[in-house]
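tool_call: predict_structure(chain=1)
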Amino acid sequence: MTSNKTAEKASVENGGLESQAQPENGDMEDFTPPMSLFGILKKLATAGVEMRGLEPIPVEKRTHTKYYNIFTLFGGSFLSVLPLSIGTTPTLAFGLSFRDAVAMIVTMQLVFVLPTLYILTLAPLLGMRQSVQFRYVFGKYPNALISLIVILEVLIFGMLATVAGAECLSAVRPDTLPIEGSIGIILVLGFCISFIGYPALHFICQYIWIPTGIALLILIGCAGSKLQQQAPTSSIGAAPYLATISICAANMATWGTIVGDYACYMPPQAPRRRLAFYGLVGLYVPFSLMMILGAAIGGAITTSPSWNTAYGQGGLGAVLGEILVARLGGFGRFILVILGLSIVTTSARDMYSMSLFTVAVIPWLRHIPRVIILLGAAGVMVGVAIAASRSFLPTLSTLVGIAGYMTGPTVCVFLIEWLYFRKADPSSIDPAIWDDATALPSGIPAIISCIGPWALIITSMSTAWYTGPIAVNVGDLAYELGTVSSGLLYFPLRALEIRWRGRL
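tool_result:
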């Protein structure tokens, strides 16, 4: 009896880390800390730093019932300069009128957010990270390729967000803080949040939207009547509309590849319709509103000599600086700092997802604490963001489009597997086999269905870097053709695999 109490006491004193390294209801934590790190990891775990990696989350640990956090998480991070900068592309880069840009943003993003909202509601039912859910479609080892693609998607948005915020910080005192330094500031702050993990992300996003929302209202007031001075349509034909569709698809559908990471700690009985509603008002509404504001600013840049000059010198951040500082002086610089730092939670969320999907790409990394992998993710984002800042607008429109091209086939194949082959039945996803390559699907049909469509995607894509022969004549159809062709391939290939294996 005494020995049991002593062991129990030792377990408590070790911050629960020893129990994390032992089997728990059939699940095992992702790492066994070496003794040299044990003391540090013990303190981090007891301080609330999330150590759990990819393994499915037992029902008894799915206790997060603040369902509105889905709204605050996305709403708090998307009320920022990221969607505002993306919103400039339909008017400034593609040449649409402001009216047409608004119509495309509102309607197309509503269409493309629906698959993401549905996938969001699956995470509480399954208690799995998004990359683990994908294993039941792509298999254990082929899923590494899909996880790498998701990392690239997340890196694209994280990089664009960081550069957009850094432009604002650099515009506070032009020629004082270089954009490289601004990028470093944002990513260090983002790392601190993602270091703690899931709890910190949800907590901070509940409140960060308040100063950002006030700053945005001040920005709109300072911009004033200049927002009404919109440039006329400068392009003709279907091409600018198709390009805008690709941007909208990337904005909304891409989150379907990571959204489960932020609801997997919720219980199976979580209200699915309410979760979908919170996702709608947290993801679609603020992202679309910020894009509309961005489209208004983008359409007015070429009609305002001072805005146009500022844009040429420092991008969108310099334009925002011109709007605020010209009207408010030193207080305008303070508002500009708030807008620049509004991107911190976006960077934190993206680093968090990258650290999780990295383990899916390199499975042996599951023996290493997530917080250590996070350092590598932060380092990659710093390097890539600095490179992208050299030519931001062409980079922005091109990379957002590429993110959409990669997302379409992945989400399509996953939904076909869940809705058609698994009949939307959670019991068909056995958590006991999540790491068993022989029990999971081979993944061959899914991989073929995601790679094969790139023959069409490449020939029908239209970007600042490359335009395919189909796109030259029609416009950017890469997302549409890639998504549809992946579905057409997956149905027969997966049916053949099931017939051959005799099981899912």
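agent: Residues 1-33 have pLDDT under 50 and may be disordered. Proceeding to next step.
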